[in-house]
């Protein structure tokens, strides 16, 4: 019975994640094509997707990639882009009482924006189990890596991803995720604050500081709206 329950949980997570798993395919293809255009081999692009597993920082790395690569700049940019994972993992970690210590750490290694969003939704509706989380994360991770391989191998054939509209796949996925968290006016205030700070920083600061600025503004707006709700209550 226990093995059947684990299998059902895994398949349940896999089914819930399937639309986003399909949606990540063109993003992986684009990344592979961009990596190939920067001179990375198919193996190098594959290893980057398999070991880093962070689409945002991978695209930023490709954007500032030079020969020879500036490893300090790449590492710092990746840190800025992925600093949000500290908040995401802190939030999700409180919703994992069914996870052992090693299972929780393994889950965080496979954390991505889409996986975090779906896990948060699940935790708000039912018990989040390791098997259900694995159903979210493992297929998504495999598809990301395999689509990166395919994109790198076919990079010369794909050409400029913008020419066929694949560059829109990344923002489209995150637009859907954001709308899934919509809770009315307060959510709009948080999104507006984050977007305004990111646009302002993008205009006046070099590099990828706009990502950190948007995240900080979003957190600040969330704290302010939460305090206002507590006062009103």
UniProtKB/TrEMBL annotation:
<comment type="similarity">
    <text>Belongs to the AzlC family.</text>
</comment>
<feature type="transmembrane region" description="Helical">
    <location>
        <begin position="164"/>
        <end position="184"/>
    </location>
</feature>
<dbReference type="GO" id="GO:1903785">
    <property type="term" value="P:L-valine transmembrane transport"/>
</dbReference>
<dbReference type="InterPro" id="IPR011606">
    <property type="entry name" value="Brnchd-chn_aa_trnsp_permease"/>
</dbReference>
<keyword id="KW-1133">Transmembrane helix</keyword>
<dbReference type="GO" id="GO:0005886">
    <property type="term" value="C:plasma membrane"/>
</dbReference>
<keyword id="KW-0812">Transmembrane</keyword>
<dbReference type="Pfam" id="PF03591">
    <property type="entry name" value="AzlC"/>
</dbReference>
<keyword id="KW-1003">Cell membrane</keyword>
<protein>
    <submittedName>
        <fullName>Branched-chain amino acid permease</fullName>
    </submittedName>
</protein>
<feature type="transmembrane region" description="Helical">
    <location>
        <begin position="131"/>
        <end position="157"/>
    </location>
</feature>
<keyword id="KW-0813">Transport</keyword>
<keyword id="KW-0472">Membrane</keyword>
<feature type="transmembrane region" description="Helical">
    <location>
        <begin position="59"/>
        <end position="81"/>
    </location>
</feature>
